[in-house]
Amino acid sequence: MVRLGPAVLVTAAFIGPGTVATCFVAGQRFGFALLWALVLATLATIVLQEMAARLGAGGRLGLGEALVQQTSNPILRWGAATLLVVALGLGNAAYEGGNLVGASLGAQALLGVGEAARPWVALGLAFIAGAALLQGQYKLLERLLIGLVGVMSAAFLLAMVLARPDLGALLKGLSPSVPAASLLTITALIGTTIVPYNLFLHAAAARERFASDDGVRAARWDTVIAVSLGGLVSCAVLIVSASTASQGSAAPNIMAALEPTLGRAGYFIGGIGLLAAGLTSAITAPMATGYVLSELVGGDDARRQQVFRLAAMTVLLAGALTSMLGIKPLVLILTAQAANGLLLPVVAIYLLAVMNNRSVLGEKANGTLPNLVGLLIVGVALLLGGISLGKVISVAG
Q1: Are the C-beta atoms of 203 and 58 separated by less than 8 Å?
Q2: Which of 192, 227, 230, 252 is nearest to 24 (CA)?
Q3: Range of the domain at 25
Q4: How far apart are CA 16 and CA 282, in angstroms?
Q5: How many domains does the chain have?
Q6: Which of 62, 295, 364, 381 is 20 to 30 A distant from 173 in Cα terms?
Q7: Nearest CA to 64 among 198, 194, 213?
Q8: Pick from 322, 315, 287: which is nearest to 132 by CA?
């Protein structure tokens, strides 16, 4: 029997308000036509996350820890460590504001409060996330996130069923096509699914969870099932959006889009899904930063716990301030996406190098097929990084 665990954290991390918004916009603008991009992104995510899980379960190393141990040149070591801290720390701090604002939108729908209450709702959610993170107990965090992912998945999948999508158009969307003006949206769909900080989060969590000899096999099934569920949830949001758009909705968010079709129940279903999506990401973004920094600093378990809590709470505080001050996180998130787009090929190349190091992984090292698929993903990531950078430059200009 497969027990879900660390890979659910990955699902919790990449299905956040940003993903919901990106999938929703894709469905509104292009109908089902870009569904194929989400499917391919999910498959690529499974490949990379399986490698990260194998490193943690088989090599007993986190990716940040492997970075320090496997790089002998001190200049390269500290340069890479600095890049990771800056890119992941600042990127996740930027995303955190969007996570809390997105979660507060869902909470507002459920509580029936107006816009004026949003900063206080976001602050309350930040306290909940902070309380979970300060516990520092992996098993507790894992159980909490499994529950939240279950609620989120149920809400969005129920919304998909109730939206009654056109099955013919849905199946047609699985065939690759690039409608006019859709390239940036395709880039966003892939970029919001394949997230570099998830590789660090997954390796660290798999090391915590899987200690037995059959841990690699358990980690692999955990990855396939949990990430596939995450991809299905993303597809569900796009399908709901495409279905409501075909019925004439021009709603700016998933809650309002569901209401004309499903009534008030649709509004609450969307609110539950968005609240769970935002809260899970509000916990996992600081977690990932905490794991990376604690691995880079090293030391005994007590020292690592201190560094983990300090880094996680710093990211959470930055996000809470952004949401409380009413700063629109759009520019911050856009910058963070560009940073992640540039960081992904670097992290993926390094991950491939580590996964071919038989002195670390032995027989659990990569074979030919994972390497070929990994190199293909790196090529696509380089292309996406260039597009993301160009997007930010054009917006800044």
Answers
A1: no
A2: 252
A3: 6-396
A4: 8
A5: 1
A6: 381
A7: 198
A8: 287
Q: What is the pLDDT of residue 32?
A: 95
Q: What is the rounded CA–CA span in Å between residue 317 and residue 126?
A: 8
The CATH code of the domain that includes 224 is 1.20.1740.10
Residue among 79, 58, 312, 11 at smallest CA distance from 203 = 58
* Predicted pLDDT at 224: 94
97 in a structural domain: yes
Q: CA 13, CA 31: separation in Å to the nearest integer? A: 25
Q: Is residue 1 part of a domain?
A: no
The single-letter DSSP state of residue 362 is: G
- Going by C-alpha positions, the residue among 47, 349, 37 that lies closest to residue 223 is 47
Q: What does pTM read for this prediction?
A: 0.88
**pLDDT at position 251:** 42
346 domain residue, yes or no: yes
- Classify residue 39 as exposed, middle or buried by CB count within 10 Å of its CB (0-12, 13-18, 19+): middle
* Residue numbers of the chain with a pLDDT score lower than 50: 248-252
- What pLDDT does 364 receive? 87
Total Cβ atoms within 10 A of residue 292: 30
Structural domain contains residue 383: yes
Tell me which DSSP letter residue 179 carries: -
Measured torsion, CA atoms of residues 303, 308, 309, 310, in degrees rounded to the nearest 10: 90
Cα(379)–Cα(142) distance, integer angstroms: 33
Assigned token pair, 101: 């604002």
Instruction: Give the pLDDT confidence score for residue 383 in this predicted structure.
Output: 80
